[in-house]
Design a protein that fits this description.
The chain is α+β, with helices and mostly antiparallel strands and about 575 residues long. Helix content is about 30%, strand content about 20%. The chain has 18 helices and 21 strands. Helix 4 crosses helix 5 and helix 6 crosses helix 7. The longest helix has 20 residues. The chain is globular and about 70 Å long. The chain starts with 12 loop residues before the first strand and ends with a helix.
Length: about 575
């Protein structure tokens, strides 16, 4: 039941703008609000800040960002809109797409004013559908430059870690990883390994705490917020929204340090709390049957708090049956390992329980899992030979390094001298698997996948082996052979509160809930069921956080009786 008390003196703390969630969207909103001199507070239920942004690759997909323009990557507005129109298939309101395209560059210009925000273009990381009108084969993804988190001082220990940090202080960017994956195959790969070795020895001496990817993005944005004096309260869980007798949201009820606190918001509340990644009941209610199991790499705190709070006020939801799907390996210790570059390994296929391929293995991960779910191919099996195992990294296991025994003990990985023995071990028909491999090997010899077009797209080829005729095709011939269980995992859910072009949360009848905004995976994705390119989760989250703060800066302040402190 929503708490509707609004008597002066009811609030323990009052600000102009309250942001719930400290991921990319919440931080972008906080920076924007501070720019407009709004008294702003960010709260987060976690003991660390950064949300799913911090544990991501940290890519940002915002066409015409200053970093891109400086490199000559300039798009006409019409080409970007055409690309988004095609991939969203009319499922996203035009004004939302317009708002994203028009406000994205403005957000990045604002961020660029800070000396902390340093970006670079990940040249070559293709848009996910570069063959479509408006798509770019060289990509539009930008990423933060590595950052020494010692600059955060007392806030360093509260930052959420991610998996981009290697042993002995080794740090790699997404571009570094792309090159390192070819360490056994190309000069660039070998050069990248020498750079990695230098970083390890350098860090031993300099004792730097280098962050890359999403962690670098969050660290840099936290520095901007610190400079602006925007406070961040951790371990502060929103339990409800507070409305006045007109239905306007004027604050939240939260739990902090074991106590209930009421936080008033004179101008608005932004929900940036993530999706329902780890909410068992919501997954069962909304997601496809084969996608219900919680194999999500999203932040553990993402249990749909913001979505549920909005629904209690009558908010509409959309896209609840979809997610930012990611084929994944479920580590025996419980970690979810996304399969991105692995699916481009040339001497490999992914087959269903019948031993047959069912889609282009190297396709964008959302599309791959859509096909996996629609066909009921869960689990699937990633099949590769020893040649592939020795050439390329797989699931955080380096080339020529054996899989840990725990992978075998848990049934995640199987190994056999022949394909027939491998098929028997995983319970798929040996004759069908043999036919699949024989046909695939024929495609590898010609360089053309006649069944699914693997390797035709610049996206497929990005993580492929450039020494091959087709970077994504090679014969599977050398035993022993491996089969790795491939699950329908995700990076977070796509569905959430329906919002307008100003990020305001809408009711079922299309009217706005005054004072309430949403962004990120708390809102229904502006990408619809698709994925424009690497960073098409973080980019929109940040942009619509910016838009919300812009709108809040323009709205009339509620009366003192609504949100006055005692």
């Amino acid at each position: 039941m929503t708490d509707n008390r609004n008597t002066a003196g009811d609030f323990d703390h009052v600000v102009d703008f309250l942001i719930v969630g400290s991921g990319g969207g919440g931080m972008a909103a906080g920076i924007t609000a501070a720019h407009h001199e709004l008294d702003t507070l960010i709260i987060d239920k976690g003991a660390t800040y950064g949300g799913s942004t911090a544990i991501s690759g940290g890519g940002i997909w915002i066409p015409n960002a200053p970093t891109l323009r400086a490199k000559g990557v300039v798009d006409s507005r019409s080409s970007v809109r055409r690309y988004l129109d095609i991939i969203t298939e009319g499922k996203v309101p035009a004004d939302r797409l317009d708002a994203y395209v028009d406000n994205g560059p403005e957000l990045m210009e604002l961020l660029d004013k800070s000396p902390h925000m340093k970006m670079y273009w990940v040249k070559g990381y293709s848009d996910y559908h570069p063959e479509l009108e408006g798509g770019r084969p060289l990509g539009r993804t930008i990423e933060c430059k590595p950052f020494d988190t010692r600059a955060l001082k007392e806030d360093e220990k509260h930052q959420r870690p991610n998996s981009m940090k290697g042993p002995l202080g080794l740090w790699v960017t997404s571009k570094d990883y792309h090159d390192l994956a070819m360490v056994k195959r190309t000069w660039k790969g070998r050069k990248a390994s020498l750079v990695a070795a230098w970083r390890v020895s350098s860090n031993v001496i300099r004792r730097r705490h280098m962050a890359t990817g999403g962690r670098a993005l969050v660290a840099r944005m936290r520095m901007v917020l610190k400079d602006a004096g925007v406070p961040l309260w951790l371990k502060t869980s929103m339990t409800d929204l507070i409305t006045d007798d007109r239905g306007t949201v004027i604050g939240v009820v939260a739990e902090r340090d074991g106590k209930t606190v009421r936080i008033g918001a004179r101008k608005g509340v932004l929900l940036a709390t993530g999706g329902f990644d780890h909410n068992k009941e919501m997954r069962a209610k909304y997601l496809p049957e084969k996608g219900v199991p919680d194999i999500s790499a999203g932040a553990r705190e993402n249990v749909g708090d913001g979505i549920v709070a909005g629904q209690r006020l009558g908010a509409a939801v959309d896209l609840m049956d979809d997610a930012w799907w990611m084929p994944s390996v479920f580590h025996p210790m419980g970690a979810v390992i996304p399969l991105v570059s692995e699916r481009c390994i040339p001497a490999s296929v992914i087959v269903n329980s019948a031993g047959r391929r069912f889609t282009n293995e190297s396709a964008p991960y959302v599309n791959f899992v859509h096909d996996q779910l629609e066909g009921g191919h869960v689990p699937a099996w990633f099949i590769m030979d020893t040649k592939a195992k020795n050439r390329y990294p797989f699931a955080q296991v380096l080339p020529n390094v054996p899989f840990p025994q725990g992978f075998y003990d848990s049934g995640v990985v199987h190994k056999a001298d022949t394909l027939a023995e491998l098929a028997q071990a995983v319970g798929i028909p040996a004759k069908e698997l043999a036919k699949t491999i024989e046909r695939f090997n024929g495609f590898a010899r010609t360089g053309k996948d006649e069944d699914f077009g693997r390797g035709d797209s610049a996206y497929d080829r990005y993580y492929g082996d450039p020494t091959m005729k087709n970077p994504n095709l090679d014969e599977i011939v050398k035993g022993p052979f491996y089969a790795i269980r491939c699950e329908a995992g995700d990076l977070g859910t796509k569905g959430g509160l329906v919002c307008d072009a100003d990020s305001r949360v809408l009711r079922e009848d299309g009217t706005a809930i005054a004072g309430l905004y949403a962004t990120g995976n708390t809102s229904a994705s502006v990408m619809g069921n698709e994925y424009a390119g690497a960073g098409a989760t973080i980019g929109p989250s940040m942009v619509f956080g910016y838009i919300a703060a812009q709108h809040v800066a323009e709205v009339e302040q509620h009366t003192a009786a609504d949100v006055a402190a005692g």
